[in-house]
Design goal:
Elements: E1 2-7, H1 10-18, E2 23-26, H2 39-48, E3 54-58, H3 65-73, H4 76-79, E4 84-88, H5 95-108, E5 113-119, H6 128-137, E6 142-146, H7 154-157, H8 160-172, E7 176-179, H9 188-193, E8 198-201, E9 206-207, E10 213-214, H10 216-226
Parallel strand pairs: 1-2, 1-8, 2-3, 3-4, 4-5, 5-6, 6-7, 7-8
Antiparallel strand pairs: 9-10
Helix pairs in contact: 1-2, 3-5, 6-8
Length: 239
């Protein structure tokens, strides 16, 4: 499983890269779960990365296709034709809207991977499969299950069988699967065991939580945990 580390500026990006993070994720944690960094900050982050480094770019929660296009307009040149993930939370899973939004990203920034995100604390367990299905049918490359509110880890907010079902459903449709949402060091082997391709962290990689500064030592510890998947334990039969 790969480790995605969210960074808010070029200095943090350099530190996370040096510590071995697999994916450097540009976002501003002070403004929301998937808030984008300013265009100039994104350009500085991209310029600080070594050739071939994998960049992830948060595009927030656009209200519609036009809002997504406006967000992309100032950022697309930075990520076009490079190894990058672009992720956003759609306002609806309506097929027409989501397909148009995925196409908007592809048109603005050719060569990137498009990731459709959803919040576990805003979706019922039964809707997780709908997120995977809608993303695949819209032509996305992957899905991210995150949490809008921070402080409680994803696997404490959402039943583990529901998350596992989401991963299986998404993989069955050929999607890359990322899990995030206040994940701590001890959560990472469990997330890997559920089959996630990517685990995303911010607070666990920082001294003082998600609003603090990134710690290379913590990133290295998180990388070790991300590689240490634990086997699934079968559920005990009902008595």
């Amino acid at each position: 499983m790969q480790l995605l580390v969210s960074v808010r500026d070029a200095a943090e990006a350099c530190e996370a890269q040096a510590a071995g993070a697999d994916i450097l994720d540009a976002k501003e944690p002070a403004l929301g779960a998937l808030a984008p960094v300013p265009p100039a900050t994104l350009a500085a982050i991209a310029a600080a990365l070594s050739p071939g480094a994998r960049l992830s770019v948060a595009l927030g929660e656009p209200a519609d296709v036009d809002a997504l296009g406006a967000c992309l307009a100032a950022r697309a040149a930075v990520v076009r034709d490079r190894s990058a993930f672009l992720k956003f939370v759609p306002p609806t899973l309506d097929a027409g809207t989501l397909t148009a939004m995925v196409a908007c990203v592809r048109h603005a920034a050719r060569g990137v991977l498009v990731i459709v995100a959803g919040y576990a604390d805003r979706l019922a367990a039964a809707e997780l499969g709908s997120l995977a299905r809608a993303a695949a049918e819209a032509g996305a490359d992957g899905v991210l299950l995150d949490t809008a509110a921070k402080g409680v880890p994803l696997l404490a907010r959402c039943a583990v069988p529901a998350v596992e079902g989401f991963v299986v459903a998404a993989h069955g449709r050929g999607l890359l699967v990322a899990l995030a949402g206040s994940l701590a060091l001890e959560d990472l082997p469990r997330v890997a065991a559920l089959g996630a391709d990517v685990a995303g962290v911010r607070g666990a990689a920082c001294e003082g939580g998600r609003a603090g500064r990134l710690s290379p030592a913590l990133v290295r510890r998180l990388l070790q945990a991300a590689r240490a998947a634990v086997p699934q334990v079968p559920a005990a039969p009902a008595s």
